[in-house]
Amino acid sequence: EDHWFDAADAIMTTDTQPKASSVTVQTLAGPVVLTGICKGAGMIHPNMATMLGFIATDAGFAPGLLTTLTREVADLSFNAITIDGDTSTNDSFIIMATGQSSVNIQSTSDPSYAVVREALITLARKLAQMIVRDGEGATKFMTIEVLGGKTPEECRLVAKAVAHSPLVKTAFFASDPNLGRILAAIGYAGIQDLDVNRVQMWLGDVWVAKNGGRNPDYQEADGQRVMQAPEITVKIDLGRGTASQTIWTCDLSHDYVSINADYRS
Asked: For residue 251, what is the DSSP state?
């Protein structure tokens, strides 16, 4: 119990700092502690990447229930980040439940389940976002929020297309509100029947694209103001349903190229 930070430090590769977080939540059956560490800074695009994440809790869980919950938590956190869209061979996310507390969860109907589930998602997202914030050469943290899709999967396709585009990522590094690059990524994401005339887009609080084209009220100075911030949200409404998906990513800088030109394992 005294070596969490040693472990967080030991698994680092090109990370600039160890990544760890802990939280205690109260349930009707008693308190539950959740502590997690992770590592990753480059080659991050979960699906066999160089990301490692570990969360331990003193709650008890039925094994099958925890397996299902772990997959759900992963999809809402570590599987929703990308730094460079590249992958390696040792991507892992593990949740360990020791059962040392008075809380023992056997089903989703247990009163403690919802509280612990929400705490796990929140903690995993915090750790996953630490990876993005420490991305190799990163200067911007970007939230790509896609809504109005027919399915979560098509929203994910659009979010990933935007988040992976080198042209989009370099524009963010340059604080350039290049709407065409983002709209192009939406277009080539793979939705065959997308009606571009229903697409809306915001940079932060600025409505930049309306009904598939430039918002007539948009002023580039407003977009420039948003793009200069260290944290930026891109919101895209596909106008075709109620599904949504959020991906977290970072910009692509000169330092990313230098790190990966010089680094050799």
From this structure: -
Spatial contact of 80 and 248, defined as CB atoms under 8 Å apart: yes
The per-residue pLDDT for range 159-177, each reduced to its tens digit, is 999 999 999 999 999 999 9
Tell me the catalytic residues.
50
Reply yes or no on whether the pLDDT at 88 is more than 90.
no
> For 41-87, how does the pLDDT look when each residue is reduced to its tens digit (9 = 90+)?
888 887 767 899 999 999 999 999 999 999 999 999 999 999 988 88
Q: Taking 90 as the threshold, does the pLDDT of residue 89 lie above it?
A: no
β pairing state of 231-237 and 206-210: unpaired
* pTM (predicted TM-score): 0.92
| Sign of the torsion formed by the C-alpha atoms of 261, 125, 62 and 35 | positive
